[in-house]
Amino acid sequence: MQISRVMTADGALVGRSDGRVQVYKGIPYAAPPVGELRWRPPQPVAAWSGERAALEFGPSAHQAGPEGIADLRTIGGAGAPFSEDCLTLNVWAPALGGGADAPAACRHGAPVMVWLHGGSGRMGAGSLPFYDGGAFAADGVVLVTLNYRLGQLGFFGHPALRRAAAPDEPLASFGIMDQIAALRWVRDNIAAFGGDPRRVTLFGESMGGFHVLALMACPSAQGLFQQAIVQSGGGWFPPNPLKKVEARGAALASTLGLPGAQATLEQLRALPAELVAAVPGEFQPVIDGRLLPQDLTPALAREAAAHIPLIIGANSGEDSLLNYPGGFERYLKGLKPALLAKAGACYGLAPEGSARLLFRDMLFVAPARWVARRRRRSPAYLYLFDQADAGGDSPRAGHGSEIGFVFQTLDSRPDGVAPRAPDRQLALDMHRRWVAFAHHGVPGEGWPRYRAGSDEWMLFQAPHGRISPVPRKGLDWHERRMRWIIALFTLKSRLTTTLATLARAVGGGRGRPR
């Protein structure tokens, strides 16, 4: 390993290079969100003098309780420290003499890919072994991973925060604000690493993919990325209004011994971070009327960020998310008998099999197809990943199992199971298609843009992907149901806007948005 150096807008960094790939870890992209900066939009980094070592990953964000920490360590994050001071990113960049595309990419500005990790908004980190960006950098791509605030520290509302905020200051979705700050850092600094800030592909998996879609509908993120990839990120967002999130924040304050909605900002910020992070909750983007001005599903229905080419897809075994003790039983018990009966008629399977496909299609596969069908002004590429896990007993591909294929990190499995030869072949094909998309905006040969008329997707099965018809029966059923729900969202949004306009008119312009 050799020492490599780069100068950023904030100061000089020292990293490592093996002659093909240079790596810089733990780079701060925003000030530590501690003390008075807790539950505030990210603030600029303080510049440093001299050289700053960028040789080790920064601390991971606090995970949501002991189960979040345990889950992170199970998937390869053992030993990672956790801290509220977590806003760092990592860069893998081509070095002269890298892959076939690397020298030209370095001379003219390499395409950039920015990865948003998943974890339900409560766990995860950009430093996990299977997010290693070395294979991308060897193929002429500058790869960036990052940490962002999670759990109650990343997605939190309370009346005290709203009262203290400036009129246009965004609220509640602090993890999304962190991602925007990281994208702005990329815009301002990535050229120093050989990257082209005008060719940024934002991609993520699970909640990270969910966030990619949210950022496509976020006015503050416009222009910060030019392409997107959504891996198992869905596409149908349940409404999450600020008022509901503030009520949950007041309940958290009560749980921790404070006077609920009457708690002061000083009291809230004095709470130990570990105590706050341990409180369970739902951690999704919040419609605050500022950062995210409208419900996201209707925004995507109107083709938000219409100019952005998109790859979107899901895995055949997304129901693996239910494979924890009591998980599937709890889900099955919560299904209404009428819905389960309709699912059985649709899929032609016994209740358990129908319920599993219902979960997969309702949350992942049907939403991905729905988003692709609405990309009329820019290309969308739809896929299904269907390579069974080498270490499992399911014939289908579990949630998140495509990540090692995309990153070419199949050897980083925490359980030590060795990949099979067909897995390696498929990983090479899938990785090359993601690289081609970053370089050229098209994911390689033989993958046409999605068109509703042909209704085809790329089916990733060993030894390589192939175009296959979408099994429309189940997905059409879901989409018909979702059209009705989306119509309700849109009607509610229009009604709210009309009422607010009337209130301002009646009040002589003194009404304020809520």
Automatic annotation (TrEMBL):
Source superkingdom: Bacteria
First and last residue of the signal peptide: none
Gene3D superfamilies: alpha/beta hydrolase (3.40.50.1820)
Annotated ranges, domain Carboxylesterase type B: 6-322, 358-461
Classification via SUPFAM superfamilies: alpha/beta-Hydrolases
Name of the protein: Para-nitrobenzyl esterase
